[in-house]
Amino acid sequence: QVQLVESGGGLVQAGGSLRLSCAASGRTFSSYVMGWFRQAPGKEREFVAAITGSGSSTYYADSVKGRFTISRDNAKNTTLYLQMSTLKPEDTAVYYCASGGSSTWYNPIRQSLYRYWGQGTQVTVSS
Questions:
Q1: What is the phi-psi region of residue 26: left when phi exceeds 0, alpha when psi lies from -120 to 50, beta otherwise?
Q2: Shortest CA distance to 60 belongs to which of 85, 27, 28, 79?
């Protein structure tokens, strides 16, 4: 059974940092692109960052570039990370991790190219 389980969310003040984790199991995730998306209240879910299976390439939304870092550890079961720094109130959202397929890297912001999704973890940034 494929599972993606996010953790690490919480309440933080503006300017602070958080690290999100996503534990993946039930599939050879090291072969596939993985990504982070987020959904703020009243808004559509949006792309945050993506990383190739090997971790050699990354891609970020302009809104988080330079502040967020995506990484992964494929040593045993794959764990995906999102290090978030210099957080802003507009970063408040539910953050989701997702796993893609063989074509995901051609358009990593496209949600329909991700096959598996986690349940999400809440990040709240206070001003």
A1: left
A2: 85
Q: Is there a contact between 47 and 61 (Cβ–Cβ < 8 Å)?
A: yes
Reduce the DSSP state of residue 95 to 3 states and report it.
strand
Q: Give percent of the chain above pLDDT 90.
A: 88
Cβ-Cβ contacts under 8 Å for 75 (sequence gap 6 or more):
none
Q: Which residues sit opposite 36 in a β-bridge?
A: 49, 97
Segments in 6-123 forming alpha helices (H): none
What is the spatial distance between Cα 33 and Cα 18, in angstroms, rounded to a whole number? 22
pLDDT tens digit string along 48-91?
A: 999 999 999 999 999 999 999 999 999 888 999 999 999 999 99
Using an 8 Å Cβ cutoff, are 92 and 123 in contact? Answer: yes
